[in-house]
Amino acid sequence: MNTPARTNGLETHEVFNQPPPLTNYNLFLTDATLVSAIKREGAVWVVPQISELGRLLGTEELQRWGSRMTAQGIGVTRWCFIPVGTS
Question: How many domains does the chain have?
């Protein structure tokens, strides 16, 4: 027996004015304040490592991981993975 799909009754309209996903950008290099602070404080030696981390964190793949974790109710709190709402 085929049953019609249920809706929550909250659909109103299709939204067109949303920006595209912000992916494939460097989170470190696009943060001028952070880059400036790193240089001002004399930590230029760490720029290559932070830049690589910023590139990885801005990838579409890592954002998909985050979306999957959110969908499964997993959050990142206090630098470790724990179920959301248990802290």
Answer: 1
